[in-house]
Design brief:
The chain is α+β, with helices and mostly antiparallel strands. It is built from two helices and three strands. A three-stranded mixed β-sheet has the order 1-2-3, with helices on one face.
Length: 56
């Protein structure tokens, strides 16, 4: 879950910040340097529901 972006630095909340492949994929796709911190899966799901809800 993206939390912040300052310049070329992207901060992500992850339930598994040791998932190097996911971090490398995000760095490649975004062109940013990624910093991570630990969050629970349930908190990430709540944030996704809040910030990426359908607007129908």
């Amino acid at each position: 879950m993206p939390v912040d972006k300052i310049g070329n630095n992207l901060t992500l909340a992850m339930s598994n910040p040791l998932n190097v492949q996911a971090i490398e994929d995000v760095e490649f796709l975004s062109g940013c340097s990624v910093q991570t911190f630990v969050s629970t899966s349930s908190d990430i799901k709540k944030a996704i529901a809040k910030y990426y809800k359908d607007e129908e």
